[in-house]
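Let's practice the habit of predicting before peeking. Look at the sequence and jot down your guess about where helices and strands might fall. Then scroll down.
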Amino acid sequence: MKSQRRFYQLICNFFGFTGLERSRFYRHARYLTPLLRLIRPYFNQLDFDELVIIDSFPVLFFQPVRNHRVKFLNEAINIGYCASKKMWFYGLKVHLAVTESGYILDYLVTLAYSGSRRIAGDRVPYSRVLGDLGYLGKVLKERLDAKGIHLWTPLRKNMEGIDERNIPAILAIRGTIET
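Done guessing? Here is the structure:
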C-alpha cells in the first residue's frame, strides 16, 4: 500500500465504520507495530509441518529501458534477468518462504543477478518445500535430500513424466505465493 490515506479508506470501506478519525487510526496502527514485533518471533518458533512454498521475484527500481543509463545506487543495485517475465531489470530480488495459508516465514533481499537455486540451497530449513521452475535442478535436489528436505518442483513441458508429476491441485497451491 503506497499511502496511509488509501489504507485508511480501504479499512473503512471494508469494515463499514466511519467513527474512527484518520489521525487516531494512524496512532493506533503505530502502537500495534511494537506488539507485532514482539509476537512475530513466537510465530517463527512454531514448527510448521505443513508445506512451505518458496519463490523469488524482482523489485524494479526503474523501467527496463533505463537499465544502462541509471547511476542510482550503482554499488548496491545491479542488472538481473527474470526468466519468468523474460525481461532484464535494474533492482533487487526478493526470495520468500510462505505457508499454504500465506504467512511469511522468511525473506531475503539479494542482488538482482543472484540465482534462486543457490539461495535456496543455503536458506531452506523446512522439511517439505514447493518451488517453481526456477528451483528445478539435480544438484539442488540432491543437496536438499541430503539434509532431509523434500523439494517438489513442476517439470518442464519437454521432460519425461510430466503427466504424473504436474498435478493441477499441487500447481494450484502455488497461487498462494504468486498473488
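How did you do? Strands lie at 52-62, 78-82, 87-99, 104-111, 128-130, 150-152.
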